[in-house]
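Please, structure for the following, as tokens.
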Amino acid sequence: MSKNFFRCFSYSTMINPINNSINKIRKIKKTDKNMLNLLYRNSQRLIRKYENIFTSGLLKELYTDEFAYKGTKSYMTTVKCKKNGLALPVKVQCLDDGEEEYVFLKSGFGIELGSKFFTKKYQDGKMRFGIGYIESKKNTKYEGIGIRLTQVQVEEAIRCGVDKIPCSSYPASLPFHTMMGFRPKKSGMPVYYLKALYEYMRVCKEEYCNTASKYFKPILYKKDGNFCFWPSYTVANAVLNDLKNKPPIKKMEALEFYEGDMIPLELSGKYFDDWKKRILLQPITFSNVTDIINKVR
């Protein structure tokens, strides 16, 4: 597995068959420009379609009155019991040393249901979150563990004044992160010729070799008037469509056997705002609604 697959699209020309300096001074062929414009328009359609590849009915259900925690203890929430469909109260335990935070979800018997780890640090005068790790350990009996752990991380981000949460997803974990609102991070490099784009696509298919080739469609964006190839969105779109037609991968050890580098994602913008609305309905780590309102404005 390539450890720097996405980085190569941002920095070097090693996979570009045409030197960038030559690209900039040559006039783009009319046929290439027309085709790139067509592919760009098709990219907008694919991005809109991406929104509905995987959706979560459970995400909506958990934020109804039926699953609101009714007790008086702090740092409590609920998950759904698969056997009877009822809300199970669970305790949230947070360990924070200022730079690293560990979150644990535990049942009333002290059984650990899931955990989440993420880093945070000041950089350029601002608090920033680093890439973390999430694990649901009892997903054969309970649902919503990952959702509640994600909520705790968003609440901590709000508390720290952070409005972007990065994520690095295994290909097989993309459905979950997509349903949580994480989207492919916007980065890439300019494309001036179709020949370069074809080479980028070849590399993507080779890296994610057990994703069906038919699902790879180039996704482009525009920057400073140039067309840019968006590798993370291209790969994510292909993998999600491929997984849609495969049985769910439930065992953590199976994730690494789904070929391909981890995909950079980000929770931000309207998707981050959606979490603010959910938190107002069912806060976990905030002591009262007034505290939340002051933070989310």
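The chain has a mean pLDDT of 87. The chain has eleven helices and 13 strands.
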